[in-house]
Amino acid sequence: MTSAQVDQHRDGNEAVRAEGSEGEGYQRGLGARQIQMIAIGGAIGTGLFLGAGKGISKAGPSLILAYAIAGLVIFFIMRALGELLMYRPVSGSFSEYAREFIGPFAGFVTGWTYWLFWVVTGITEVTAAAAYMTYWWDIPQWVSALVFTVILYGANLISVKLFGELEFWFSMVKVTAIIGMILICAGILTIGFSDAGDTASVSHLWSDGGFFPHGVGNTLMTLQMVMFAFLAVELVGVTAGESKDPKTVLPKAINTVPWRIAVFYVGALIMILSVVPWTNFHAGSSPFVVAFEKMGLPAGAGIVNFVVLTAALSSCNSGMYSTGRMLRDLALNNQGPKFFTKLTSSGTPLVGTTFSAALMLVGVWINYQWPGKAFDYVVSFATISGMWAWIVILLCQIRYRAKADRGELPRSEFRTPGAPFTSWFALAFIGMVIVMMGIDKDARVSLYCAPLWALILGVAYLVLKRRNPEAAAFRKR
User: Fold this and answer.
1) What is the spatial distance between Cα 212 and Cα 65, in angstroms, rounded to a whole number?
2) Alpha helix ranges (H) inside 370-446
3) Nearest 10 degrees: CA dihedral of 342, 346, 347, 353?
4) One-character DSSP codes across 224-252
5) Which of 36, 177, 355, 379: CA 20 to 30 A from 198?
6) Each residue of 452-475: b (16+ CB within 10 Å) or e?
7) Cα separation values, 456 from 87, 117, 335, 339, 391, Å
């Protein structure tokens, strides 16, 4: 490509950026405040508030190191996504980049897989939210699930701004809870108040069997649980087409990943495990609830129940948002039914969001009627499908960087540090986690559905390609 051609490509790329969401029919309704909180909230969920108890019992204080290492990998993934977003900020970014840098089939697989990930996640989260409500009131779970789904569905259809506002406050609750816990623990360590004041000490991190009480091997096995806790952190990429100023807002949001993980995961666990010895935690219990109880604050159980309810609703809200955008992106590229392209007057994908919300309600009913192994297998598939998006992001960034370095494409204004080595490192790390999932009998179920889903998508793509050859053609939007 000559320098003139590169300039022409760059000018066209700038035109796409300037045109922004209007080129896709969306409206730029997400401001900096909302994008920042969506980025923060995506990294904080039930994996920390509830799931960390199992990790602590399995690895002890070394779980802190596992979160730190995994957090570094997540930062590399997010920087890779940021580089692609600054090159071309579009809604449905993962599947769009997969089409451009890997091929139309990769875009097809990525779009439908990420859509399924959020549908399944939405089903589990709205069901969980309904279960959390029974802590305070004796309400049938299906009633709560129906009410939550209808409210979130309505909010997503009204405007993207309302979605962003809901997500802002959902994230605010989670952030406030963690910061509050850190401050309380800091007060106990320095001043010594509460029932845990006499025994609280940073030495708990190494004195109760050492930093690796069950060995390095068990710590490595917790990496799969740790990575699962970070699923949905990439959601900020889906918002690219509806951000008011993506070139400014998205890099700032992505660059906050290190301190978010340092404070909300590493910092929170250091404080909790310094106040309460790790031997007090076990699988199935929230470390926050246990910590509150040991501090002599019995109201902690109710507080944490409210927080995990918020986390579940936040995840379901994100699912409503992303599924509609993914289906519309697939339809715009002839890889999904054309009726998914329909938008409301406020620029939200009407049919795609409605279809996904309906499936979430059906899933809640199925879960109520047949809460057996079959549903567990489907739910567990969400983990591996979520990581597929990370793999695609990294592969696309590697290919994009190679083309940009050769002068075939304009360089992104937000380059990944250390690439391509950091991207290859992140891919290797994800590969190691998948291998560990295969070794661990409890996590192995996550891999069972993947080949079947791949076969379904492969057959569907062949049929689609035969009926509509344009489905196998990439057109840059």
Assistant:
1) 10
2) 373-405, 421-439
3) -60
4) HHHHHHTTTGGGGGGGGGGBSSHHHHHHH
5) 177
6) ebeeebeeebeebbeeeeebbeee
7) 32, 15, 14, 22, 20
What token pair was written down for 146?
A: 């129906």
- Three-state DSSP state, 261: helix
Q: Is 298 helix (H, G, I), strand (E, B) or coil?
A: coil
Q: What is the mean pLDDT of residues 77-91?
A: 87
Residue 129: both structure tokens together: 């939210």
Q: How far apart are CA 162 and CA 188, in angstroms?
A: 39
d(CA 294, CA 181): 13
232, two tokens: 């949905």
For 165, 299, 344, 406, 451, the CA distances from 152, given in Å and listed in that order, are 12, 28, 16, 46, 32
**Which comes out higher in pLDDT, residue 91 or 438?**
438
pTM, rounded to two decimals: 0.87
- Asked if 230 and 70 touch (Cβ cutoff 8 Å), the reply is yes
Mean pLDDT of the chain: 82
Q: What is the DSSP letter of 31?
A: -
Where would I find the H helices in 264-344?
A: 268-275, 287-294, 300-332
Q: What's the helix, strand, coil split of the chain in %, to 5?
A: 75, 0, 25
How big is the CA angle at 374 (ends 368 and 133), to the nearest 5 degrees? 30
pLDDT at 440: 80
Residue 402: how many CB atoms within 10 A of its CB?
14
Please state, in angstroms and rounded to a whole number, the distance separating the CA atoms of residues 45 and 49: 7
* Range 444-463 average pLDDT: 86
| Residue whose token pair is 């509806």 | 242
Q: What is the pLDDT of residues 10-33, one digit of tens each?
A: 444 444 343 444 446 666 656 667
Residue range 133-181, pLDDT digits in tens? 888 888 888 888 888 999 988 888 887 788 788 888 888 888 888 888 8
Chain centre distance of CA 245: 22
What is the band of 380 on the pLDDT scale with cuts at 50, 70, 90? Answer: low
